[in-house]
Design a protein that fits this description.
It is a single chain. This protein has two domains: about 230 residues, Periplasmic binding protein-like II (D-Maltodextrin-Binding Protein, domain 2); about 240 residues, Dipeptide-binding Protein, Domain 3 (Dipeptide-binding Protein, domain 3, Roll), CATH 3.10.105. The two termini are about 30 Å apart. The strands form six sheets. Strands 3, 4, 11, 12, 13, 14, 15 and 22 form an eight-stranded mixed beta sheet that branches. Strands 17-21-16-20-18-19 form a six-stranded mixed beta sheet. The protein is about 30% helix and about 20% strand. The protein is globular. By secondary structure, it is α+β, with helices and mostly antiparallel strands. Keywords: Signal, Transport. It comes from Halopelagius longus. Belongs to the bacterial solute-binding protein 5 family. InterPro entries: Peptide/Ni-bd, SBP_5, SBP_5_dom, TAT_signal, TAT_signal_bac_arc. GO terms for molecular function: peptide transmembrane transporter activity.
């Protein structure tokens, strides 16, 4: 069915007017991270109706950096892209259960995956979706010999660990059948196909737009890209009336940026936004006390940590130093006093609701005497200094990054370590840490697929060949061929790596779980990170919103949302 051109034309004409309402920015709460948007204001949109159009406004702490699923690791990008792109297999809203997406049926037997594709789906550019689109999507992401491969510096670290490391060949059998031959048995594969990084791109768009897809996305999803006002950090999408799934119930969605947590909550309360995320302790109180909004919460599937860059800082190559720092930092105070109960202490890479969580591991308690003793044993009793890189903008796994960094600085000062805080905006920060320029850094991770491999392998396995490793050394260079830049610790522990690799090849759930429990123990004992916290998922939602489902995986599912 042809798209309703009149409706789209109307939305284009009224979009600027709908976005004209300015949300007054106020000074950031001293207990919250961020500073409000540039020049003290956040350019946003009015919510509800504009003429005959309904606009849903989603306010967040940071603008996107790219809208190409193959060019980003950022959750800020993902929440926008998930409105415009679909995957072959998808997650049920608010659950970790798989459901049909652009594939209606699938099977994984040994090392062969077969999928039957959905017929009658069109991309936003009018092209019909076929198996050849996924073949082109796969090649663009993983094959340097492909004519339209955008380059190693453009494709994200997701390419190898999502698809490239596991898939030897993808072939189309007609327009609606796909066969994928894996290089080995790989237990998380079907869940990987549901990740945002496996979003299906249009072959024609790949050929026509190249790397400009980061600014002009073309998917099959429930919303269509309209415009991106980067100066005001605002992205506008319109409803896809031809969507194959559950059609949107609003005419357009606008993503705006309000950097301060508290200001964002006040914006929700005053009606300047319909949904907000990135909520810290103080902001959650604003929402809870609002007569116009409610706080929605759910157990998260995430982790927050402080990583040691072992390649750059020689002291961090000594396990005693890493453990000393882990004992010195008061993570209990972090979660109780700074995060004020919206998170719990971490002891290992995964949270308790993920397969392989080791209940026998406790968080490191603060023990300054033990910390000092370990530094003395390592030969660093007189202390040393290092940089702690962090982000300005709040994240769900670290809603108050500056306060958290100040706590670390204070705690480590008690054992003679000098910490220099380097705070950056989120997108430059990601570039900085993925290139290994940091000494130590705060980071975190929202699961892409609720599988333990998405933590253990994605974040702490270097993903390099054996010849890139040095005997007797448990770290590797960021410059190593094929290095996984999500492993910002540069950690390369062979015993850990072997367990994670074995777990990938194990289809028996119980046996797989035991391998991850062992890997968790090694990670805890070796301490490539200071394990900080696992946070609740919090959203502020206007009482005019109906149908919102909080989704720790994928989402937000804004096509389900309507406005009263």
């Amino acid at each position: 069915m042809p798209r309703d051109i009149d409706r789209r034309t109307f939305l284009k004409a009224t979009g600027s007017a709908a976005a004209a309402a300015t949300i007054a920015g106020c000074a950031a709460d001293p207990d919250e991270a961020g500073t409000g948007s540039p020049e003290g204001t956040a350019d946003g949109t009015g919510t509800g109706q504009e003429g005959d159009a309904t606009t849903l406004t989603f306010a967040r702490g940071n603008d996107s950096g790219s809208l190409d699923p193959q060019n980003t690791t950022s959750g800020e990008d993902t929440k926008v892209m998930n409105q415009m792109y679909d995957q072959l297999i998808m997650f049920a809203p608010g659950k970790s259960k798989l459901r049909a997406g652009l594939a209606t049926d699938w099977n994984l037997e040994g090392t062969t995956a077969t999928l039957t594709l959905r017929e009658g789906v069109t991309f936003h550019n009018g092209e019909e979706f076929t198996a050849e689109d996924f073949v082109a999507t796969f090649n663009r992401f993983t094959n340097p010999d492909y004519e339209h491969y955008p380059g190693d510096t453009y494709t994200s670290a997701y390419g190898p660990f999502t698809l490239g490391d596991w898939v030897d060949d993808v072939s189309a059998d007609g327009d609606y059948k796909l066969t994928m031959e894996l290089s080995q048995k790989y237990a998380p594969f079907l869940r990987n196909l549901a990740m945002f990084a496996s979003s299906v791109l249009s072959k024609k768009a790949i050929e026509e737009h190249g790397t400009d897809l980061k600014n002009n996305p073309v998917g099959t999803g429930p919303f269509v890209f309209e415009d991106w006002d980067t100066s005001n950090q605002r992205i506008r999408l319109s409803a896809n009336d031809d969507y194959w799934g559950e059609a949107p119930k609003v005419d357009e969605v606008v993503f705006t940026t309000v950097e301060s947590n508290t200001t964002r909550a006040q914006t929700l309360d005053s009606g300047g936004a319909d949904i907000i995320d990135g909520i810290g302790a103080q902001a959650s109180k604003v929402v809870e006390n609002s007569s116009n909004a409610e706080l929605v919460e759910k157990e998260g599937i995430n982790t927050g940590y402080m990583a040691f860059n072992m390649e750059k800082i020689e002291a961090f190559r000594d396990k005693k130093v890493r453990k000393a720092i882990s004992y010195a930092i008061d993570t209990e105070s972090l979660v109780n006093n700074i995060f004020q109960g919206i998170a719990k202490q971490a002891s290992q890479p995964i949270p308790s609701n993920v397969l392989g969580y080791n209940e026998g591991i406790d968080p490191y308690p603060q023990d300054l005497e033990k910390a000092q003793s370990l530094l003395d044993e390592a030969g660093y009793g007189d202390g040393f200094s290092f940089e702690l890189a962090t982000f300005k903008n709040p994240r769900g796994y670290n809603p108050s990054p500056l306060q958290a960094a100040q706590l670390v600085k204070s705690n480590l000062g008690e054992i003679g370590l000098e910490v220099n805080i380097n705070q950056q905006s989120f997108n430059p920060f990601l570039d900085y840490t993925s290139s290994g320029k940091h000494d130590a850094c705060f980071l975190g991770w929202y699961t892409d697929n609720a599988d333990p491999d998405n933590f253990f392998y994605a974040l702490l396995h270097p993903q390099v060949s054996e010849d890139q490793l040095t005997e007797g050394q448990d770290w590797v260079s960021f410059d190593a061929d094929g290095y996984n830049t999500l492993n910002v610790a540069a950690w390369a522990n062979r015993e850990y790596m072997s367990l994670v690799e074995e777990a990938q090849k194990t289809y028996d759930t119980k046996a797989r779980e035991e391998k991850y429990k062992q890997a968790a123990q090694i990670a805890h004992d070796e301490a490539p990170w200071v394990f900080l916290n696992h946070a609740k998922e919090l959203r502020g939602v206007s009482k005019s919103v109906e149908g919102f489902v909080l989704a720790p995986i994928s989402g937000p599912f804004l096509n389900l949302v309507s406005l009263k």
